[in-house]
Amino acid sequence: YRTWLCGGVIIHEEYILTSAACIEDAEHFYVVSGTYKYADEDDRYNNPCIKNGAKKAIWKCIPKNYVFDGHENDNIRWMNNDIAVVKIEDGFDFNRRIRGCEFVPKPICYNNQSQTLENPGTVVTISGWGTTSRYNDWINRRKENQQNLLESHVEIIPKNRCKRRWGSRYHNIIDNYMICTKDIGQTMSEICNEKYVDCQDISYSDDEDARRDLKIIEKVPTNLTLHSAYNDSRRYASQADGGFCENDHGGPLVYGTGVNSVVVGVISACLVKERTNKCYGPFLYTSVYKNRQFISCAIYKDLEPKCRRQFRSGVTHEEKILSWKNHPDGPAKNELGTKSTVPD
Prior knowledge:
By secondary structure, this protein is an alpha+beta fold. The chain contains eight helices and 13 strands. It has one domain (9-334): Trypsin-like serine proteases (Thrombin, subunit H), CATH 2.40.10.10. The protein has helices spanning 20-23, 48-53, 159-163, 171-177, 188-193, 206-214, 292-300, 305-313, and strands at 9-12, 15-18, 30-31, 55-63, 84-88, 109-110, 123-128, 150-155, 178-181, 252-255, 262-272, 279-287, 317-321. One of its GO terms (molecular function) is serine-type endopeptidase activity.
């Protein structure tokens, strides 16, 4: 998996929220936080932040209704509730900067408050190190990643408008699990002028839909008390096209800024043009609110009776312990003769 890079967000001192497609078939992987920088040659030996701060993943959990078919042609099931919770070998220190890193890692709360944070017209933020325009071949998969973390503002749009750009076989997934954001890069005319783009199903006008949708949009509450510590001390240049592309998968869709920010979605899928591999929208994110119980029980299942029963049944989720005992990098910290903290 050296060719892949995925995003994620800290939601607890020991737990990460990311995409199921990123980790479903990965047996060993690291979690790194505290840096804005990325370079292709970075590894745990040469980069001081990774060397001193990389943490082994020791447990992962995905929804039961998720099926990874990413290696199959014309696949679709990997988009079905594409979300996962990962546990690391020891907790992040939210009071100390790791030597070689740029900032102290901080958690962000996840949306278990209100689905109104997903309302059309809401402006939210995405971030990642991935490519800014197109998917690459296997050989060059990481060469066009960004060296600095990029952020961009995006706007949530109604699902009915989103589905006009996505084929009918995606509509059930969009209705049940996704948040959609507007493609504010190329205009519709620019996309349709390219001969290899099939525009038969692309017939909507942003202005017309905006007028129709204006009457039903509810205002997003601004007085929610959301406890988090989202790092807001330093930002790099924003992406101009307001979307995401390759190697941004699993990154957060965030509402608000500062201590009141909250992650509302996980980066999941974009449209890709056949001949040029260019990425365009509408862009899809797996809803955190619709998975709020799954996330809560993944973190607190040993403390809450309902979650203990739910996880014992195995009806709603699949979990797996990741052992490093026989790995060349050595055992995880929880395997070094101490009592394991991996959920039972």
